[in-house]
Amino acid sequence: MLDTPRSQPPQLGLSVTDRLISTVLELSFDQLPSEVMERTKELVLDQLGVAIYGSTLEWSKMVRAVADAEKAAGTSSVYGGAKVTARNAALVNGTAGHAMELDDTHDESLTHPGAVIIPAALAVAELTGASGRDFLTAVIAGYEVQCRIGAAISSRLVRRGFHPTAQLGVFGAAAAALRLMRLSRRQTIWAFGLAGSMASGIMKFTQDPEGTMVKRLHAGMAAERGLLAAQLAAKDFTGPRDVIEGNYGYASTLVEQDDLSRITLDLGTKFEVSNISVKLYPCCRMFHALIEAIAKCRARSNLSSDQIELIEAFGPDNMINGHLERRPRSTMSAQYSLPYTVAVAALADPSQPASFGDSMMVRADLLELADKVTGTADAELQALFPRKCPARVRFHLKDGTVIEETVLDSRSTPANPITRSDIEAKFHSVTRDIISMRAQSDIKAAVFALEDAPDLAKLGDLLRFR
After folding, report:
1. Which of 229, 263, 354, 403 is the most exposed, having the fewest neighbouring CB atoms within 10 Å of its CB?
2. How far apart, in whole angstroms, are the C-alpha atoms of residue 171 and residue 166?
3. Please, is 312 exposed, middle or buried when counting C-beta atoms within 10 Å of its C-beta (0-12, 13-18, 19+)?
4. What totals of helices (H) and strands (E) does the chain contain, helices first?
5. How many angstroms separate the CA atoms of 324 and 340, rounded?
6. pLDDT score of 10
7. How do 76-77 and 402-407 pair as beta strands?
8. Would you say residue 1 has pLDDT above 80?
9. What's the CA dihedral at 173, 179, 233, 203 to 10 degrees?
């Protein structure tokens, strides 16, 4: 996390919710460090690229078809489509942004903030005619809210069966939307109160290898609900104050959590956009260090499936539990299958979305190797979670050789960052078969010049490609 030019004194006597609201309302573009702003633009570009790719997938097209059926013209752009209502744009684009497990991750909160907050902010910015500076500031505010609440409670949320991105995204989207709508403090309190009742989303998708499209919807759903909370509050529709803490508050009701100090830690002086991991592999975030540990083993030995007797994978509980499906029956279940992902990492290219597609899921060599994979929760690695998502892999070869590697921080995490050029390369890679090189360059230029944009009309036009 990065320091601002000057620290703000703590706001004594205010509740956790009130302090978070004060930060959302008082955040100023001119006081934000340039490093924070540049990082935010990189995250916007990354999310747009991922969502452009995601907009072409079956489940995204289904959600878009439902929105198109309303035949309601609007103000906000759908990627690869037309202008629709702001809430429909947030729903469709948020679903597309979470459609292929390539969207950014805040590891400590176990959430994907970009797929929720950026579509919501873009939809409202087009609706209100907000400037690029206002849009970027709203995005940062959304990341602050979603990531900080999640960092305090998400581990318990998952244990209770709640999906953090869906649950907490509504708060992040509401924060971004209300900033752009210029809500008053009283209306902001109501928007947060409404968001607490709108938060939803369960982890059941991890248990059904066929009924897994719903996870794609979780980001779009949170983006749309957060926007609705802000719109209702703008009309003076009331919600309860101090919604996060206290009796029947969000934290105590869902996870019986009283210690919320992480939410306000360095609040207003350090920013969560600096703690974001950009995903390089289209699968569960928990597997990324494991994939890179396997790559290190492959670099040491030219492994082939007939050489391998056993592969042991070690990691935090969240990497193992619920992830041992050996015969995935959908892209989603393949992306969440530890044995299948290990096989892909050992024998194929885990950076390619096609590696988790239908044709690969039936490859005999991958399935044979998946049957040789075990998963074990490791106390040493568990102690590092969720600030890190570490992993260890151990290959046992038929000739008795054992090859082992451990990775604590995969590439593109805050501790092991990638460059802007790497992010641009990912953007070009995921969009190259969908939009022209000229369109790629124009979108990239528009994003990196957002602080000088009087509004988001130009970017919106570029995103409505046909």
Report:
1. 354
2. 10
3. middle
4. 20, 8
5. 9
6. 44
7. unpaired
8. no
9. 10
